[in-house]
Amino acid sequence: MIQAHELPAVVTRVLAAQPIVDMHTHLYPPSFGSSGPDGLMLWGLDELVTYHYLVAEVFRAVPAPKFPYAQFWAMTKSEQADHIWKQLFVDRTPLSEACRGVVTTLSKLGLDPGVKSLTSHRQWFRERDPNEYVDRVMELANVESITMTNAVFDDNERARWLAGIAPDPRFRGVLRFDPLILDWPTAGKKLAAWGYDVESELTDKTIAEVKRFLNEWCDRVQAIYCAISLPPEFRASEILEKVVLPVCEERNIPFAMMIGSRRGVNPELRDAADTGGLASVEAVTSLCQRFPNNRFFVTMLARENQHELAVAARKFGNLMPFGCWWFLNNPSLIDEITRMRIELLGTSMIPQHSDARVLDQLIYKWDHSRTAIGRVLTEKYADLLAAGWRLTEAEIERDAAQFLKGNFLEFLRG
Ligand code: RAT
Ligand code: ZN
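Above: inputs. Below: predicted complex with D-arabinaric acid.
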């Protein structure tokens, strides 16, 4: 039985020891290309330092037009990294969450985060073998499985799948097809060019052909679920209801909706251009109610949507809230959201995913999240002890396993 004063140490130890199944990342194995401008596997120092969160932050430190966007994008990746390093890590204190993440990652890799120049670290990364490095990072982050985001409308990725990719047991596939739902006219033209007999109207034949497309690609990427990122205004659509949800139901896989991203508010920032907005939880509950044979993973980008989403999950067993996404992936917000979710849902939610784009980020994203989740759990267990519960370490282990792995895998199985 655990005493209150032992809680911080036990919770920290148990969370650290629990391997993670990361349910949403943008990571790829080396077989998708680990170098050059087209390689999909992003890893190493320059990618870490030019993460789009840090691109946004360097333009706060040295704003355009004083430092023109075009000048930044004309630089090589290493030059961009040097610029960001100087502005955010040398001339300023790297206090933001994304900056601290680089510091944590370098420290855990045994590299001095206090250097003025990146040259020697760059050399260290150059000497890594990408394939072995995946193992090293997964071991350091204690991540047992990485879930990819396989964007079928991305020409580079699509070509690689069509050329044939040997499966990598460390990575699992997820089919992502945002344009199909957000921009059917363009997506439909692409499908037609790829040999599917589709028309602009959603006729029975077109529905059958789009289903064939989704099924073929789910098979190809061995999709464990399908996914989309949606704007705040999102409402159900014909193609979602007549094509996507039936395919997910037939395949018995969940559909993940990441709701609230507003794309390209400042296009000059490229990958860092997007912002978030308040969305409608009703759009979610309506789907959960009308499609009881479908299962929905849902994360929302607006802090203001979190409470309503957690309440909705109390009403629908086919709704699984997950993660503190993107601008919510900050300790103060993880603390608030995780606390509220535990109070409303107990252990029946997935507190976090990494959304890592650069392999090395797994190290910090999970280190920081484990700490934030651990603080909340410690307090919740203390409250439970005060209420008269006798808590064992095995119970804490069971909770950690559900939060970091089991709830995701169970919801996949249905
Ligand atoms: O978190 C991010 O890196 C965003 O740029 C998006 O990729 C978002 O996570 C998404 O999956 O759409
Ligand atoms: Zn993402």
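The CA atoms of residues 146 and 171 lie 5 Å apart.
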